[in-house]
Every structure is written in C-alpha cells, then in structure tokens.
Design brief:
Two copies of one chain form a homodimer. Chain A is α/β, with parallel strands linked by helices. In chain A, 30% of the residues lie in helices and 23% in strands. Chain A has eleven helices and 17 strands. Chains A and B meet through α5, β10 and α10 of A and α5, β10 and α10 of B.
Chain lengths: 379, 379
C-alpha cells in the first residue's frame, strides 16, 4: 500500500526518524547517569512504547488511566501516572494494582494523601506514591522549602497502604524559553528543586528512593543529573514545530505529519484548500508566540520535504488553507498542487495532532506504508 | 449513576437544553419556508441525530466519510458530505452509494467534476453533486458570477453518472461578526449568492432543484429564505461560548460541558488546578478575539450554574488552571473547590471539545446520568 492510496487526512509516522530520536534521547540521558522513563502521552501506541523501551529496561509514564489500562494490557506493568490524582480515580488505580500493575500515583496535598490511604486500605492494596514538586512556578506541586512537603511525606510514610516512592517535578516553563542557555537554566532548576526536596525528606527520616525530573527541552540540554534517578520526556520521540522553534531538534527530525488532499484553489487569494483542517491538525497554535509562527503547520511534499515559505495559514473543521507566509506574496507554485494531489503537513504540537487520529500510517523514507499502528485517545 | 461517580474528565450533555435548542432552530427555519438539513459534525452521535430529525423529515449533513458510514449504518440514508470532494475518496463514496446511501458530494472545480464522472462510471453508480458557491469570500467555492459555475454545471449535466442537484454555500465569515445586524447582512448575502447561482444555472438550461445555505449564526438571524430549499447548521444543537459571544444564544442554552475534578490548589497564585486540560477541553480559543475572552472555558458548579468571573485561564495536556478573570484578583471562594470536588466547564467550541471524547454522559437538569451516548471521531 502506498501513502497516495490512503484516504486523507491521515497521520503519517516516519519510523527511521522515530528510531533516531529515541536513540538520541536515551544516549543523552544515559550519559548523565540517569534512566529514561518515556512518557507515552504523545504516542499512546504500544509499538512506539516498545521501541522507546528497547534500549533500556524500566517502566513508562502515562497521562491518563486509559493509557495505563492500555499499556498494562499490552504487557507493560511499571506505570507512573503523572497527573495529580483525583479521588474519583482511586478505585480504578486500586483495580489495576490488584490485577498486577505497579502503578505509581502523584499528589501534592494532604487531602489527596488521605484519600489515597483510605482507598488503598479499603481495597487492600499498597500504592506507590510520589510527591509532586513545583520547581519553576509552572503549575502544580509543593515548593521545595514548604514544610507541607515533609508533612505529606510523613502521612504517606505512616500509612500502611501507601509507599513513599520519591519526588517528581516537571519544568514546564522551559517550553517558553527563547535560548538554549535559558533551557539549561530550567534544567538546572528542575534538578535542584527535586534533589533539595529529596534531601529535605531524608533529613526528616523519610525514604526517597526516586528523584524524577523532566521535559523534552530540559532533558535535551541537561548538563548534570547528579542525584536524579529518572527522567521523563515524551514528545522527543516525534518532535514537532514547537520543539524545532525551541532549537530542541531540527525540522528534519520531525517524525509525524498529516497527509492531506488538495480539494480546491482560490488563485486570486493565493490559497490552496486541503481537507486537513483543525480536526486533522488540532487547533494547537503553539508556535504563535515563537520566533517563527508556523500557522497550523509547515507544508511538505509527499516525501516530507518542506516547500519554502508555505504554511497552513488558517484552519476550519475540515478545511486547511495553504498559502505563503505573510508578506511573501500569492505565487505559491500552483503546478505543485493540482486538485487531487497530496501534501504532508508538519504539526505544531505532536501530542495534540496525534490525538485527532486513531492510527499511524508508518513509512520509512519512501511512500510505501509498512505498517498501520493503532493508538488510543480520550478517557 | 450520578455525575459525581463518573471518572473525570468527562463530557456532559443536558438533554432538555438540547431538545429546546433543536426545536427552536426547526421553528426558525420552518417559519421562513425552508427545510433544515442538520449538520452532525458537532454531535457525531446517532441519538442526537434522531432528536434533530424528529420534528422534520429529510436527511443530514456530515463532515467526514466516517460520519457518512456511521449514520448510514444507523439507518440514515440521505447524506450530504459538505466538504469539497477529494478524488481519493470517490471509491468510498461509490461504495456507500452501492450499499444504498444517497450520498451527495460537493465540488467547485472542473477537475473534481471530471474525477467524479470517471469514478462514478467505473463503479456504475449515479452520484448526486452540488456546486459549492463562495458567497462571502470565506473559504471555498465558485463566486456567483464566475463563468466557471455554468461550465461545471454543464459538465455535471452531461455526465451520465452524475446528477446536478443544486448549489450550496456557507457564510463562514458570519462567525466573526460583532453585531446581530452584521449577521443578518451575512445571512442575506448567503441567500442572495446561492439564489443567483441557481438562476444562472437555470438560465443556462440546467436544473438546480436544491439551493442550500447555512451556518448557525446566519440561520438564527435569517429574515428571508425565499428560493432557498434547505438550511444547514450544526452547532445550534449544543451551542457554545463562541455562539453566546455572537449573541446567537445565551450561556443558559449551552447543552455541553466537561466535568472535571479539583486536583490541586496554588493559593498564592489564586489557582485551582483541575484534571481537564486541553486534551479534555480542546485547544480551541475561539472566544479570544470576541468581546469577552473566556479563556479555555467558563467554570460552573455541578448543576451547570456559572461561578461569577471564574474561567479556565490556562490549559496543559491534562491540567486546567481555574482562576478569576484577569483583573479580578485571587480570591475565588476556595470553599467551593475542595480537593476532590468537581466542576463543570462550558467550552468555547462544542465541535472541538466534543471531538476529544468518545461518549456523552447525558443528564437532564439533575446530577443523575440518564444515558451514555457514544460518538465517533476522526477518520
């Protein structure tokens, strides 16, 4: 089967690029003495998870309990659910634990610790728990010197049914960096915050075997992982325009794209209309505030080579508008885009674009589709 | 089952509001002498389709061939696929036609007409075809006085395997209107463009039985549908914050919301963290350019009553940040949001938010879940 024979819009995954991206990150993290715990929130696909785990032992990170179910059913038992636990989900967590999963949850409040202790006791299971740390003011977590950290640690330690496994942080503000030096700064902050929390817990007589940090930008540019035991990252497998805009990868590394058909021309406006709108590309405009605004994506030929200056300037539910970047005129080389022809579009944000599709059309440098890999979505 | 017992985030649909919204639009369009052809691109759910068709006979509009398959398999045979046809999809269209669907396609070029004629002949089927008109410069379509209109009409008429069914337009620019008068203007433009095209075709000796127009804003405020035979609209079933911002509905009419759990507090920042991020709400920021920017959604209690001044100010993949609107301070009534409690969030754009979920938790004015309705997504 050729890519040209697939109904558009459809998701295309370059296996060779995926493989190289995975190897590069494993090497980078391994060189600094830490272990990678790949985040499957981007790929949500067992074939990709197996590739990500091929060069290293150990578990994975997930962003939903649906992912936890799916990967557990496909044989991955060591799972970290890296979103602060909601009490309504604890029955589900206990159920997976009873079935044999080692499912670690995270939290940053006494209320959550109390709810977890109660439910774990009720179900007769022991749940591994990590305390979420706010190392950069980004989102959730306990700040490193807040006495609440040790209070939560004590509560977890004292519960017969909970196991204090360690601390975890995510320097999400690194996504807004303008320079590599800034990313390195966030990488250092992330490490220091987590390590300081681990020390605070240990000084209080509490165990803290795991110190977990990570994001794709900070992992890529980390210089030091001393006392860090694991690194979480996910989008590095596919990369995307947002990561390229951060200089975390190059455009050539992007493994994910959306194939689209040309369904119309508006020549006076300099527009090519395709059948890949925001439903196929996602509404994510993550490059809007970067140095180069890529619209809804960069337009490539079917071999994945970008057309100079051509982006998806606007997107409706099932229509995308391809045009020259603002200021570059209306002559976009019409001979490249006859009606019925196809293009590939590199997305701003691989996590968001992937989520609009239920399968990957896997290729490896040619138009031959060498596999259909399913992925899960939603809740 | 109560809403409080469902794992969050999950999609909530108010059946009574849905029913009232459907009745109101049917009445509005019917009063002007036209027939509604409901667009199922928003709901993608057979139960909703049946409600939308209950008060009138006739077919539906769909935005993907996957929707066409799904609704056909559930007994709806009169389908309009309202996205310019890509040649790669014609085998699929012919297949559905052979199975008994009356699947109308649309196009705006001779190349598409040629491809359709070729494939219809190859498969031995007759395909109904409409010509897409650009009535407001919005996106696709032939402008009303372009001689191409009659050329396409002739090609369709001459093909033994195509049936020229009529003309179709969508005044998509109405979504950007600032006043009701502006929407009325777009509604008039939409009607006039389509009717003029129908006349141009008829003057050339071609049949044009169907004159199809529509969008939720223009249908809501249409004053005249003389010579229009059908009106397409979809989001009116659920409405959303964007439609409320256009004064097409009130906030109280919104039938769709996302239930979320409170998973953290950042009191110094005035933030409540929930487990509904952009993966649950979508990345759609459709109210960003309206008079009132609603962030990623309006926060309500579990009965669906908005909390004054509280919106989702930021969203990550699985985290949403609830805070006061900019300028209203950090005191957000913490007693309403204990950790583990739940809220409901009204979305910017029902089509986009719905697409992140595979089912509706149907309620009717109380927290009792009276049904689980499945929906389809993707391609």
């Amino acid at each position: 089967m050729k890519l040209f024979e697939m109904e558009t819009p459809c998701l295309v995954l370059e296996k060779g690029k995926l493989q190289r991206n995975i190897e590069r990150m494993c090497t980078q993290v391994g060189q600094l003495g830490a272990r990678l715990r790949p985040h499957l929130k981007t790929a949500k696909c067992i074939e990709v998870a197996r590739m990500a785990l091929a060069t290293q032992s150990g578990g994975i990170t997930v962003s939903t309990l649906k992912e936890a179910d799916y990967f557990f059913e496909h044989g991955i038992t060591d799972l970290l659910y890296a979103v602060g636990i909601a009490s309504i989900k604890l029955d589900h967590v206990a159920e997976l634990t009873k079935r044999g999963a080692t499912l670690t949850i995270i939290l940053d409040s006494l209320e959550q610790a109390q709810a977890a202790a109660h439910k774990a006791q009720m179900h007769g299971v022991t749940l591994p728990v990590m305390i979420e740390i706010d190392s950069d003011g980004h989102r959730s977590g306990v700040t490193p010197d807040d006495p609440l950290l040790v209070e939560i640690g004590r509560m977890l330690h004292q519960s017969e049914h909970l196991q204090l496994k360690g601390v975890l942080t995510h320097a999400g503000d690194s996504y807004g960096c303008k320079t590599i030096a800034e990313i390195q700064h966030f990488s250092a902050i992330e490490r220091e915050g987590a390590v300081r929390c681990a020390e605070n817990l240990r000084q209080a007589g509490l165990a803290c075997p795991t110190v977990s940090v990570g994001s794709t930008p900070t992992a890529t540019y980390a210089m030091d992982y001393a006392d860090v035991t694991e690194v979480r990252a996910g989008v590095y497998m596919f990369y995307d325009l947002k990561m390229a805009g951060l200089d975390v990868c190059s455009i050539e590394d992007l493994a994910l794209s959306v194939a689209a058909s040309v369904i119309g021309h508006q020549r006076q406006k300099g527009w090519v209309i395709t059948d890949a709108g925001w439903m196929a590309l996602s509404s994510d405009r993550g490059t809007a505030k970067q140095k180069i605004d890529q619209g809804y994506g960069v337009v490539c030929d079917m071999e994945g080579r970008p057309y100079q200056g051509l982006i998806v300037v606007d997107a409706y539910q099932e229509h995308g508008i391809i045009a020259k970047r603002p200021g570059l005129g209306k002559e976009l080389g019409w001979h490249n885009f006859p009606i019925g022809s196809m293009v590939r579009i590199l997305p701003n944000h691989a996590c968001a674009t992937g989520a609009m599709h239920d399968r990957y059309h896997v290729v490896d440098g040619t138009a031959e589709v060498i596999g259909i890999w399913h992925r899960i979505n939603g809740y």
